[in-house]
Specification:
α3 links the parallel β3 and β4. The protein folds into two domains: 217 residues, YjeF N-terminal domain (Rossmann fold), CATH 3.40.50; 267 residues, Ribokinase (UDP-N-acetylmuramoyl-L-alanine:D-glutamate ligase). The protein is of the alpha/beta class and 498 residues long. It contains 17 helices and 19 strands. The protein is elongated and about 85 Å long.
Length: 498
């Protein structure tokens, strides 16, 4: 058993169908109930580690399926070592799988106190949620929903078995209106994508994992990004390098009233390590590019028209671009070799059929693109609601990547990185401190700054590193918002070689 986050290396993630296939193959080669016994023992061990003084009662709420069977095995193991336990069986009148039936009989024979009504014992020290697990595909029924509410209402910490009841393993969304708010979740056999994105992060608490001694042979459905993806970017620079060795970035945005977005992107590109960073601001009244960062240079409207050397730069477009950015995109989509498209740049593409076509043709022309939409921007591009995007974030990211033949970072809790032909990745670094104005502009600028240094870098790998870096800097803020300008400096501080 091991704690998963923060994770240093990438880990495979398996959806429900793959997890069931892995389980079936493992069961075929093991004696009856072996996996359930291993799972229950793992739950018991973690419960004892979380409750070392053994004071109070561990209340285990079990459903009628194999998740409940895991809980019953854990109850028997805890009871055998002297821990006070109480089991509540929910929907016990429904037929149980053979292994779960065997677990119930063994617990009864061992003398474990088992009740068939939902009532917490006095002095609950720890609640174990073994209600639903992987098998959930629809909103919990009335009794299950009542059990979830009852457990959530207790002050005692909650440990969820495999995943919090009410949470969908594939998407990280809730099947109904409620789910267990766990302080700890012990994933068993496989790690599921829904643990790391959408509502998963909010409901899982600290995440633990036990593979139960099974090594999956299937290819993963997704990957959890590890911090090792940043390693190549955090090396000491070659002593012979100069600013020209680290590439140029052009940030196009900053319409009237939104100069800060372009400036933040420019500062981030500088902090990421780009040799030179230019701002092409769409507000014609600006006389000073950035009074706090004199290193940032201006790319004037006249130069934009007359000088084509920007085509070889890494271009970051859309940060505070307003409606005026649309008029620049025809040229940009046709000619920019490397493009990070964010914010108003995405909105302009979503609203214009011709721009959408140009974007989708870039890959065939040898041009590389990274899109960085938040859910509402993704919804505009997909022609649906943000609610629909959030209901299945993994599919939304994949569809966007395929539709526009590029790399997509679908931002949010558990940002997703999708590229056609590549395994989708989920970033688990970061927290709600990043939910503040301008942090998306910082990510876009950081992407540009990294890309400028390595023009031939794989956009998928580049996006993974930038997302992880961005999130790790967010994790340095324990409470409250992290202001975007401060985020740039926190990210810069993470250049220290590991």
């Amino acid at each position: 058993m091991q704690k998963i986050l923060p994770n240093r290396v990438a880990r495979p993630l398996f959806n429900v169908a793959s997890s069931r296939a892995i389980e079936a193959e493992a069961l075929a080669g093991l004696p009856t109930s072996t996996l359930m016994e291993r799972a229950g023992l793992s739950v018991a061990r973690l419960a004892l580690a979380l409750q070392p003084a053994r004071q109070g009662v561990i209340w285990i709420v079990c459903g009628p399926g194999n998740n409940g069977g895991d809980g019953l095995v854990a109850a028997r193991q805890l009871h055998s070592c002297g821990q006070a336990v109480q089991v509540s069986l929910i929907d016990a009148d429904r037929p149980a799988p053979p292994d779960a039936q065997a677990a119930l009989q063994a617990a009864q024979q061992a003398g474990v106190p088992i009740a068939r009504e939902l009532e917490a014992p006095p002095q609950v020290a720890l609640t174990i949620d073994a209600l639903l697990g992987l098998g959930l595909s629809r909103p919990p029924g009335a009794r299950m929903a009542a059990a979830i509410d009852h457990m959530n209402a207790l002050s005692a910490p909650r440990l969820a078995v495999d995943l919090p009841s009410g949470l969908l393993a594939d998407s990280g969304t809730l099947a109904g209106k409620q789910a267990i708010n766990a302080q700890h979740t012990l994933a068993l056999l496989t790690l599921k994508p829904g643990l790391f994105t959408a509502q998963g992060r909010a409901h899982c608490g600290e995440l633990w994992f036990d593979d139960l001694g099974v090594a999956p042979k299937l290819a993963p459905d997704a990957l959890l990004i590890g911090a090792d993806c940043m390693a190549d970017w955090r090396q000491a620079r070659n002593a012979t390098h100069h600013k020209g060795s680290h590439g140029d970035v052009l940030v196009l945005g900053g319409a009237s009233g939104m100069l800060g977005a372009a400036r933040l992107a420019g500062r981030a590109a500088l902090a990421a390590g780009a040799g030179r960073v230019y701002l092409h601001l769409l507000d014609p009244q600006v006389s000073e590019i950035d009074p706090q960062r004199a290193e940032l240079m201006q790319w004037s409207a006249e130069r934009w028209t007359a000088d084509s050397t920007w085509q070889e730069m890494t271009v970051v477009c859309g940060c505070g671009g307003g409606s005026g950015v649309a008029s620049q995109l025809l040229r940009l989509l046709s000619q920019a070799r490397r493009l990070v498209l964010d914010a108003d740049g995405l909105n302009a593409v979503a609203a214009d059929t011709h721009l959408r076509l140009l974007l989708s043709q870039r890959a065939a022309q040898g041009h590389a693109t990274i899109l960085t939409p938040h859910p509402l921007e993704a919804a505009r591009l997909l022609g649906c609601s943000s609610t629909a995007v959030q209901a299945d974030r993994l599919t939304a990211a994949r569809v966007l990547a395929e539709q526009f033949a590029c790399t997509v970072i679908l931002k949010g809790s558990g940002s997703l990185i999708a590229t056609p032909g590549r395994t989708l990745s989920i970033n688990a670094s970061g927290n709600a401190a990043l939910a503040s104005a301008g942090t998306g502009d910082v990510l876009a600028g950081w992407l540009g700054g990294l890309w400028a240094q390595r023009p031939q870098a794989d956009p998928y790998t580049l996006a993974s590193a930038a997302c992880c870096w961005h999130g790790q800097a967010g994790d340095t803020q324990a409470a409250g918002p992290l202001r975007a300008a401060d985020l740039v400096e926190r990210m810069h501080a993470l250049h220290t070689p590991v």
